[in-house]
Amino acid sequence: MDRYYTSIDTVKYLNRKGFEVLGTVMKNRARLTEDMSYQIDNLAKGDSLFYCSQDKTLLLTIWRDSKVAYLLSNNGDNTTGETLRHYKHTDSNITYQRKVVECPNTIKEYSQSARGVDYLDQMASYYSTDIRSNKWYMSIVQGSE
Predict the structure, then answer these.
(1) Within a 10 A sphere around the Cβ of 7, how many other Cβ atoms?
(2) 20 to 30 Å CA-CA from 3: which of 32, 47, 72, 106?
(3) Is 19 inside any structural domain?
(4) What's the predicted TM-score (pTM) here?
(5) Domain assignment present for 46
(6) What is the pLDDT of residue 6?
(7) 22-24 and 68-73 as β-strands: parallel, antiparallel, unpaired?
């Protein structure tokens, strides 16, 4: 899920309905405590934190790369693996450097599945309809435009 739709209440509701959810979440919707915020502010690049709810149904994954990423899931795990990242290295020329970094598995899973929604939106944009709305269509039929 996209961060616009993800919240703790939404993930809990979908969990009760039997759906597995993995989505980015906005920082203000993650319900962070002061201690959690302090730990997040002191994360170094490549470090991650995992917080589990008391009933063990929700997992909040926090990972700092160039920015801090917040993921909320009801099916994730708190394991990390290696992933290949491309960093821009500037000298006299612009070159790219490949580097293997530690990354939570939930981040990799989200990155792989998020592209499908973007691709669907791209394909849907190629097939637009001529009718914009019923109100617009009725104004054409009645001759008021």
Answers:
(1) 19
(2) 47
(3) yes
(4) 0.70
(5) yes
(6) 87
(7) antiparallel
